[in-house]
Structure formats: structure tokens, C-alpha cells
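Blinded run. Sample ID left blank on purpose so nobody reads anything into the name before looking at the predicted structure. Input follows.
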Amino acid sequence: MENKDHLLEYTIPQLLRWRVNETGDKVALREKDFGYWNNYTWNDYYDRVRKIALGLEKVGIKKGDKLALIGDNIPEILFMAIGAQSIGAVSAGIYQTSLPEEIAQLINYMDVTAVFCDDQEQVDKLVDVRDQIPQVRKVIYEDPRGMREYRSDDWYLFIDDLYEMGAAAHAENPQKYDALIDQGSPDDICHFCLTSGTTGLSKGSMISHKNYINMGIQISKVDKLENTDEYLSFLPFAWIGEQMNSFGVAMATGITINFPESVETSMEDLKEIGPHFMFGAPRIYETIRSQIWLKIDESYWLNRLIYNKFIKIGEKAARYRMSGERMPAFLGFMAWLGKILLMDPLINQIGLRRLRRAYTGGAALGPELFTFYQAIGVNLKQIYGQTEIVGIAYMHRDGDVRPDTVGIPLPETECKISEQGEILSRSPSVCAGYYKMDDKSAELLEGGWLHSGDAGYLDDNGHLIVIDRVADVMHNSKEEMFSPMFLENKLKFSPYIKEAVIFGDKRDFVSALINIDPIVVGKWAEDRGISFTTYMDLSNNPEVAELLKEAVTDINARAEKDHFKIKRFAVLYKLLDMDDGELTKTGKIRRKFVMEKYKDLYDALYDESVSKKKVEAFFQYQDGQTTTVEAEMSFYTMEGAA
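Blinded prediction complete.
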């Protein structure tokens, strides 16, 4: 295998230049716009970045300045980020779903002096808080639609005008850009990546060029990627999971990054691209699994019969493949037959036929879901890490996929478990700390190890098993330990359950608030002639409750210990939502916030005399309007649970 360690000598802009010299005419980026895929070669990529860098310098952006990026995934996000890095400035991604006040807080925290927005929607958020961000000198936008009235204000700058400035500067001094990027060092901080903020305002992890490039190199040592491989960029750019691919993996391996037309069309665009590898949070794979389930449910009875037969065969075969053990000949033949007759056509419909490997991270994924994907022929593997180590520190190897673990350390990564059971890591990809947070940085990197905040242990095979967040691990009233995340994942394997929040710390039993999957449960209800109007109406249906009772009963029957069993549950009248503060930007539950917000429901779960409770449901719409609706929630007690 080609040794790429020499790439660690480059910054990201320098590595982009190296890519141009190696394969300048190869497609580096591809974007779907108005139904057509537009290509950017590495030469085009470099040319755009150079224009941006020189243009930014013209408008007064200099080394050490901070440039925030807000918008959907488009090539210009990368042009702007690497352009800023070329002149020694620091880029920083902000989630496009962030509200104006939150954006203002983050801009002020990170000392941002310029902001790039992809369209009017994001620009208008800055307009709302302009008086709160006086240090911002320029707002650069990509889509001119709706921006005509802003053109007379020099606070705003159209990206095409920035390109023109950069092109003129390059024509005046063709050597200037090379001289600028030659001043960079691999250890320079190039990007602030915001943590997911489960406990409050996000922290800016200070990440260097070497951090990103090292991550791309080490991943490719485990799973080789060809420069002809395709990747679909649909994760939020502000999340480390997307940056590690666009900054790290793409630069280290030369793969092609594809940008969908919109967030809404990404799954359809995925079918057209047919990527060779894929990375996504658990929620993505749960959604795809639900889509597969719906396709099968809508199929003819014979197809359903064949599917149920071959999925069981596939699961048996998957256990051999995942462990690397030799498969019995007859099982191998039947698995091959199922692949030809059913699985290949099925995964081809969702665009995963060419997929060699799929990765999931950001939160734990239930073992059952791993086995399901392996059974249908998708080589799904777990990765584990955090923002502060550029997303990945541990991952499964082919032939050694253990669904209850997150794999073994990447090359150049060390792991140890503290006396308190906390997972500690050391790697060239560990960040320099948090911006302007010396105390928290010292805690994060105490003793030269990255402190994850997660509890876990190494098994006899060197695989890491993550239990839960150290702060989230619970003990019942008898001091028996359990992981709420583990039980939540068990619940979410049911296609009818979209989200779940487990309670039980210092209590006599475990309880849960459950979100149904409105698409799957809605289809189930329609097939049975059950009428409903809203999510609230559907979630409170007694027949839906019986459906969920079956799922909880199944989980309880397979519980390893009695105190893992769920005794009480209720179906929440609304979906948990990041805009309501209940989920982080990456879809993780903000457990303490949820517990405080729904304290009356939490109390009712632990009052076994309560079977029904009237609640006031508060809703806030995207246009800012609010409404309050009275509803009645039901609470259910499971027989046989402790």
C-alpha cells in the first residue's frame, strides 16, 4: 500500500497544490444544480481557492482573522474555507439551522470578522443581529437571489465580485498566492470545529492542518480508498464528520466529493452517484432502514415471504463475515442466492450497490442494526471518536466487525482507560484545545491524553466498548448500573420508534418517553384503516400503544439483567427537535434539558397510579408564531418488569 505519511508535511492549501500537480485534470468536486451535475477538476478547485484567498486579502482579511461559514453543503464552502486558510486566517463552520441569537453568540465567541452565507435566508439572520456583531466587516454570499436591495451596502459582498478581485490580484502578481501558502505550517490552526453542545454553548475546537490530514491518512491505511472513489457530501459541514472527509480524506486520497442539489434531495442524488464509501450519523441509517422496511411492506406477499426467508439467511451469513470465520458451503450458497435475487436489487434501489464500506459515528448504533445492514450486503462499520480528535480514533476492520464494540484504535492512536473508567486517547489528530477556554482545554488534555468524557473498556480482543457518557451512566435505587443510551438504541431498532429517552437514575425502575416514527407508523395505521390527523393524534392512539408494547415486551424479554427492563413508558405528543433545544445539532439527546422540560411527564412515569394526564403542548413554528394545544397523554405499565 502506498505510504502517504509524507503528506503530513503539507498544509491543506499546500496539499491542494500538490494534488493539482499529481492529477490536475481529474474531477475533484461535483455539484448538482438545476438537475445537472457540474464538475470541478483539481485545477478548477485550486483556481477558485486562489481567487478567494487573494480576494479576501484585498478586502482586508489577514492572518489570524476568523471567517465563519453558514450554509448548505456546496463547493463554495470549501473554496471559502481553504481560501481563508491560504492567507493564515481560520475558518469556522456554524450550523445552518442555528437561530440568529445563537449565531451572534458564536460569532462573538470566536472573534469572527467575516461571514460567508450561501443564500438570503442565512444573510437575513445576520441582518437581524447586525448590531450585536460590530466586529464583522464583511458578509459574503453565494446565491444573489433576493439580495438586490443589499447590493448598495458595502457590508455585503457577492462571491463573484470576490472572484474578480482575486483574479485581478493574481494577474498583477502571479507568484503571490504561492508565496502566501508557502508561509503556512502543518501545525497552524486552520479551523474551529464546534462541539455538539450537549451541556450548553458549543466550544470551538482548535484544529490544525496536520490534525485533518493525519486523520485522512490513517483511515486510508485501514480501508484503502482509490482516487476514483465517489463520496456524497450530505452531512452538515459544521460537523466534524463532514470536515474529516472534505478536508482530511479527500485531500489525502484524491477521492471525488459530490454535493447534492439540496438537503431534501440528497437520498435521491445518492442513487445517481452510487458512492463507494459513505459516512453518516446513526439517524441516517435508521432512516434508510425504515425506507427499506416500507418498500418491503408495500410489496406483494410473495416478495415479503422471500425477503423474510433470505433476511434470516443473510443475518446468519453476516455473523460469519463480520467475524472473519469460514462460512459453511450451503449457507454461503444460499446467501449468494439471496444476494442475487433480492439484496442486490434492493440496495441498488437506494443507491448503495457500489458501496464497499459504510461508516457510522456520532452516537452508538444498536448491534441489531449492524447485523441488518451486513445481512443485506452493506458493509456497515462503527467508528468512534469526537470533535477534538477529528472525528475518528477507533474503527472496525473488515472481517473483525463486532456489533457491540466500536473497533480498535487507528494506526498512530493509543488508548487507555482511566481509573474512573473514562476512555483516554492519544493521536497526532488530537486538537490543540478550545478557543479562549484555557481551563477547559487543560481538563480536556490533562496528562497528555484526550479525555473523552465517555465510559468504556477494552475487551480481550483489544476492541473498545463504549458504555455511555460518564455523566449519563445511571444507577437505580439499588445502585445497579445501566446505560440509558444502550436501552435507547435497543428501542430504536423497532421500525416504529424514531427516538426514545430513558430515565431511571436513583429510581426503582427504568422508564421511557418514546417518539414514534410518523412515516412508518402512519403507513401502518393507514393500512389498517386507522384514521388520524396530526402526529399528536397518531401518537395517542391506543392501537399504536399496543404496537409499542410489543416492541418493549420484546426488548424486556431479551434483557441481560432484570434492572435493564423498561417498566413504564409514554408516547410523547411531539417529535424531539433541535430547534426546541431537545437535540443537539448532530441529533444527540440533551438528556438533562429534556428531563427538566418534561418534568411533569417524568414525575407521572414514576407515579404508577397515573394512567392518563392532561398536558399543555407548546409549539413554535418557523415563522416565529406559537400556539398551545391541550392534549391527554397515556402512561403504560409493562407486566413482568421489575
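Unblinding after everyone has recorded impressions. The longest helix spans residues 301-323.
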